[in-house]
Specification:
Layout (H helix, E strand, L loop, with lengths): L37 E3 L4 E10 L25 E10 L2 H20 L6 H22 L4 E12 L2 H17 L5 E4 L5 H6 L12 E4 H4 L16 E6 L8 E4 L7 E4 L6 E3 L7 E2 L4 H14 L5 E5 L10 E5 L17 H23 L5 H18 L15 H5 L13 H14 L3 H20 L1 H4 L15 E5 L7 H18 L5 E5 L8 H13 L3 E6 L12 H4 L7 E4 L16 H8 L5 H9 L4 E6 L4 E10 L1
Parallel strand pairs: 9-16, 9-17, 10-19, 12-14, 12-15, 13-14, 15-16
Antiparallel strand pairs: 1-2, 2-4, 2-5, 3-4, 4-6, 7-8, 7-19, 10-11, 17-18, 18-19
């Protein structure tokens, strides 16, 4: 397996013992009695084999699959860990001797040994109970099993193996996992490796149990999420335990990406009855995750809903943004950040109006109009808005005047896009040359049409509450009224996002349901990512279409890399490769952004596109599972 070369002649050295066996491992010298490592020169690998031993009583009782605790929860840099669990039935003559003679004598010895040490006294009591349980199982024809666990650390140098070993032990300590001892038999590394798949250690330091007891000490493939405190999200399809529920604790989740890839989860409301596959199910998954973040004490959850439907609860507020208004001219921010807030709002309003123009005329000169439109908007705010202007050309030296641009609780006095239309009309009237007149007319007519067609987006005053009751947990801003026109939906989203990130408090969470269901330029939302980061706001983003050009790949600078997500949920992936103009949510992107290769088993299952099956991954403990997702809302 490892292309080992036959040693012709052992090297002569006072420090080396006579070469053992037929193959050499140590660089150039063969195998030594004192070697703690195995060197595989042809592959530039170094390995060490360890016995994994458990102190008596430290894992009794435990849940099925508890043995997975020996797998460290942190990344062990530069090392690959392999765990081998070996079991072998005890021969019948030996089993008969143990059951008929040794059980009774051991029980008598344990029960009649005087002890003054309280810990040892407690252990003796446990031993007595264990022997009695074994006797009962033996009476039911249960067999006796010898078992052991080996851990192999593979790296590129002995130094990295020792560093990895220290990290593993530190991981056990940090996670309060007691009673695990890692033993390396120096000088027996070759024999340990040679017998890895053929022999079981059967001695007092390893486990000898009845088969029923040994069964709970298996490494169940994807024993999955079985958190003590969590919610059921479905069935782990790879678990050896039949119908094994996946129970996930989301309290460690701050940021998450959910890509359904047109795979629909099963949803029940109020109980398991009435279950059905739901389109745009990423919204439901996001709801379940965000409920968990709230339980961790993170704060209120703000939902911008473009896909799915709001799951209203008693502690929620719901706003239909097709009927409600956020005045886009109004600058929501703080006195400390007023300059950046004002500039961001100039950019936002300009982008909103550009999107409106593009929606009616795809052949506009974007660059020329953008520059002129933003210049007119800033000039209007400085000299005209509100009567005598609400801003200044010198905000650093005139902070009071600059802060006049900030929104207050009195929204009815703030100028609107309809007021700015007068500026655009005057600009059209004053245009001299034919080209300027044409562009000015385009801007004026486009904004005038937008005001008439979408009054709640452009012509009204902000009519959302200034203050929310402290018991409000979820706030839904539903912009699905504009979903049939992606660019106008982008206008509504951009305006709502700007409002929400500035209204949200420190440590709140924002959930964007269906970012790929609209059209909005990436650069226009980046300023709000900076505010999200500054205020430590959590961000959960859902995507529904697997081949959309708006996805975690193309919008990575807003959503963040896959490696920085606390939770990843994937249903389907694109089979398209990136090209010069487009980026897709494909396996190549996932592997790059995640800084690891997605397991082949997972890739295979995702490519099958089974309805309801999602890959769930949690960063805090690197736990993952393929789950037939069934959510209870």
């Amino acid at each position: 397996m490892f292309s080992l070369k036959r040693k012709k002649k052992a090297a002569s050295s006072n420090n080396l013992k006579k070469f053992k066996d037929d193959f050499g491992f140590t660089n150039g010298f063969g195998y030594k009695d004192t070697d703690p490592y195995l060197f595989f020169k042809s592959r530039n690998l170094v390995a060490s084999v360890f016995d994994v031993l458990f102190d008596y009583g430290t894992h009794n009782p435990e849940e099925i699959g508890w043995i997975c605790k020996v797998i460290p929860s942190e990344n062990i840099h530069h090392c690959k860990l392999l765990f081998f669990e070996r079991e072998k039935g005890v021969p019948k003559p030996k089993q008969k001797d143990i059951i008929q003679k040794k059980m009774a004598s051991n029980l008598y010895s344990v029960d009649n040994t005087p002890e003054t040490d309280m810990e040892q006294l407690a252990n003796n009591g446990n031993r007595s109970d264990d022997i009695k349980i074994s006797a009962i199982l033996a009476g039911r024809k249960d067999t006796i099993i010898d078992s052991d666990i080996l851990m192999v650390i593979v790296s590129d140098s002995p130094e990295h193996i020792e560093e990895g070993l220290a990290l593993i032990r530190n991981s056990y300590h940090n996670n309060n996992i007691d009673g695990i001892t890692l033993v390396r038999e120096v000088g027996r590394q070759y024999l340990e490796f040679r017998d890895l798949l053929s022999k079981v250690s059967a001695d007092s330091f390893h486990s000898t149990d009845m088969s029923t007891v040994a069964a709970d000490r298996l490494f169940f493939p994807s024993s999955g999420f079985s958190d003590e405190y969590g919610v059921s999200v479905g069935i782990d399809i790879d678990s050896l335990i039949y119908n094994n529920s996946a129970i996930i604790d989301f309290t460690s989740v701050k940021n998450a990406i959910i890509c359904t890839g047109e795979i629909n989860p099963i949803i029940s409301i109020g109980g398991f009855e009435g279950a059905a596959a739901v389109k745009d199910g990423g919204s439901a998954i996001a709801q379940v995750i965000s409920d968990g973040t709230y339980l961790s004490g993170r704060g209120r959850v703000h939902h911008i809903v473009m896909a799915g439907y709001p799951y209203n609860k008693e502690d929620s507020l719901y706003f239909d943004m097709g009927k409600k208004t956020i005045n886009p001219m109004e600058v929501f921010g703080t006195p400390e950040t007023v300059v950046q807030d004002a500039n961001d709002n100039f950019d936002k309003v300009t982008e909103m109006l550009i999107l409106v123009m593009e929606n009616s005329n795809s052949n506009i000169d974007d660059t020329y109009i953008r520059v002129n439109l933003e210049a007119m908007l800033e000039d209007w705010f400085i000299f005209t808005a509100g009567g005598q202007g609400l801003y200044t050309t010198d905000p650093n030296n005139e902070p009071k005047k600059a802060q006049m641009i900030l929104a207050t609780d009195n929204h009815d006095n703030y100028p609107t896009t309809s007021d700015f239309l007068i500026k655009l009309r005057d600009n059209f009237a004053q245009a001299n040359d034919q080209e300027s007149k044409r562009e000015a007319q385009l801007m004026y007519k486009a904004v005038k049409t937008a005001i008439h067609q979408y009054p709640n987006l452009f012509s009204g005053h902000t009519n959302l509450p200034n203050h929310y009751d402290k018991n409000i947990h979820n706030i839904y801003y539903d912009i699905q009224a504009y979903r049939h026109t992606p660019k106008i939906a982008g206008v509504a989203f951009l305006n709502t996002l700007a409002y929400v990130v500035n209204r949200a408090r420190q440590n709140d969470t924002i959930v964007i349901h269906g970012l790929d269901q609209l059209e909005v330029p990436l650069e226009s939302i980046i300023p709000y990512k900076k505010i999200i980061k500054r205020k430590n706001i959590g961000l959960i983003t859902t995507f529904e279409d697997k081949n959309s050009q708006i996805n975690p790949n193309s919008y990575e600078s807003f959503t963040g890399t896959m490696n920085n997500q606390d939770m990843i949920v994937i249903g389907g992936v694109s089979d398209k490769d990136d090209d010069e103009n487009n980026k897709y949510f494909n396996i190549n992107f996932i592997n790059r952004s995640w800084s690891r290769d997605m397991p082949e088993k997972v890739v295979h299952e995702l490519n099958l596109e089974q309805q309801g099956v999602f890959f769930w991954y949690r960063k805090s403990d690197q736990q993952s599972a393929l789950i037939r997702t069934h959510l209870l809302l």
